Amino acid sequence: MKHSIRLRFTALIFAVLAVLMAVLFLVNSFGLERFYRRQKVLDLENAYHTLDEIAASKGTDSTEMEELLRYYSSRYNITVALVDSANSKLLQSTENGKSRLYQRVQRYLFRQDEDGKTLVLKKTESYTILQAYDDGSQSANIDCFAYLSDNQTLLLMTTPVANLKESVRLANRFLLYMGALTLLFGVFLVWGMTSRITGPIRSLAAISEKLGHMDFSVRYRGQNEDEIGVLGNNMNSMAEQLEIAVSELREANRKLRDDLAHQEEIDRMRREFIANVSHELKTPIALIQGYAEGLEDGLCEEKEMREQYLGVILDEAGRMNKLVRQLLTLSQLESDKLDLNMEVFDLRESAESVLRKTKVLAEESGAKVSLEAPDTGISVRADAFRIDEVLMNYVSNAFHHVEEGGEVIVRLLPRGERVRCEVYNSGKRIPEEDLGRLFEKFYKVDKAHTRKYGGSGIGLSIVRAIMTQHNMPCGVENCPSGVLFWFELPRAVQTNSEEHK
Length: 501
Known about the structure:
EC number: 2.7.13.3
CATH topology of the domain at 5-168: Beta-Lactamase
Number of strands: 13
Subcellular location: Membrane
Structural class: alpha+beta
Oligomer: single chain
Keywords: Coiled coil, Kinase, Membrane, Phosphoprotein, Transferase, Transmembrane, Transmembrane helix, Two-component regulatory system
Strand content: 15-25%
Enzyme class: transferase
Transmembrane segments: 12-32, 174-193
């Protein structure tokens, strides 16, 4: 920080102490002498009134008067004398300085400050107080000359005045030394004490800086029970709330990005779907239209030629019908509009049934077909009709892609609480870049070969949709000499009632 609060606070205390020392120095230089003189005058005034009361009530020669004179002499350093003005007789006096006081009285009565060294400080009808300089003693005094209430007794009082200028100079030097020490000590003391105050503040400043950089893990650890502690606790609460709010905001942003990505993926798939459907329908429609126009134009007058034209039209119409039915099935499966008919059945029997249905494909491909499964059968719980679709798709794909003279193997492998069904065909492997997309709608690795056997690129998408509804996995793997498609189903214990069905 450019200007820390600790430094500013210390500088403020230093400035306050310096100003106080300067004020004290000025007051001592210009006000001490005046205050000292005023105090001396007040002492003489109080002494006059007290002595006047005692003289009026007890008399000037009373014991009380003597004790009072001694008191003022010892307590206030005041020399007092009582003189009878009629015969100039000394009635009472303190022992100290009788002759000197009498000389000052004579000087006051007869010379009246003819040398200009006397200053009248206060004058009333009853008394006069003045300051005079005594050449003999080389000192200044403050004197009081007054008549008591009887208008006959003269009261004379004097008190020495110290050399105030020298005293002020010495006092100022003392103040200068002590002030410097006080300032240094005060600065070090304040610098040390402010660390207890500014430490928590610096901690709060560091916390606020980290909060500004989105670091909400910081917390105030102080134990203060004052305003700083309350502020720290409030900042902790604010950090917790901000952390929760930012986490929720980040989660919302993540979900929004996922939703946008999902929506973009849906839009992309919709565009691809429309393009693929258009592409798949374009060829059979063009063929049907061409052959129909040929029939209409009479290009095939011979019966055999007409039957050939009609056969092509029927084949392409059947291809479109199959495509539409597959699309309808896939749409229903993906939208969960088809309810699964869950039942317990023997997966071995289903596999044998599919192999019987595809016997023609096996003979056309010249492949060796085998089923590897437990002789006792394997009971699973699933939708038997949909699983037959999956098996039919896998097996027919295997026959269409098996190499000439190769083999197609269907394996049923019990694995704990599940059964893994594998359909293997020897032959050309699938490129690695195509493996992950093989179950996408209309995706074809070899479009010419797929067209040859009537594939639409939807069969594996239907397989994935069926297995998704069963909450079971499926996939494809490359083997050293071929390709293996697989899926899994949960095993089930077949009840007696189901065995009799």
